[in-house]
Amino acid sequence: MSNILMIVTGANALTMKDGSEHPTGFWAEELVTAHRDLVAAGHTVTIATPGGVTPTVDAGSLDPSQAGGDEQARELAEYLDAIADDLAGAVPVADVDAADYAAIVLPGGHGPMTDLAFDANVGRVLIAANEAGAVIAPFCHGPAALLAAKLADGTNAFAGRTLTVFTDEEERTGGTGENTPWWVESALREAGLLIDSAGPWSDHVVVDGNLVTGQNPQSSASVARRVVEALAS
């Protein structure tokens, strides 16, 4: 079985276009589903955050209206309680050696738009993991972290690769709307990455070599399954 690094946002707010602060963090369904399914497959998951801070769950993701009902919200909260020590013990991304991990998984929530997308250490880990052929699996807003993977010449290490991500349309209609400070899909396109999107809220996964990406929370289980399959092969 493999060692997997889960890089999680350490942010708890996103500064909006109008200057207001939007509470955020990681999206519960995404972190819980990926963590649970990867551990169930026999893998060891280490959580890392910028600065080693304890990551904050986006409160909205535990609201039954957004979590799929009362039972689902309760299950998500219970799982987070069960791994509370793992979350509190998050290692600093700056201390991570990508060579120690067979896969890097990056769940979303709006938090990555605040920190992971601009973190040089996140970029360093992703570049090293990619060069080593490790599985790299960001999903929903997690692909924002790929923007940090800048090479010495300023180009993006993943330019020319095909992926999916929480779309601008999904952001406008079911995310933070027109007050969104910047658009992850558009930013990735501008960095030279190729976007393959399905309809809003579709369970959609794209695999390009060692890069496994999912479009939204609905894709969480499918991303985890494809990571397990990639590691098995």
UniProtKB/TrEMBL annotation:
The keyword Ion transport does not apply. Keywords: Hydrolase, Lyase, Protease, Stress response. Residues 29-229 form the DJ-1/PfpI domain. One of its GO terms (biological process) is proteolysis. GO terms for cellular component: cytoplasm. SUPFAM superfamilies: Class I glutamine amidotransferase-like (SSF52317). It comes from the Bacteria. CDD domains: GATase1_Hsp31_like. Belongs to the peptidase C56 family. HSP31-like subfamily. This is Putative intracellular protease/amidase.
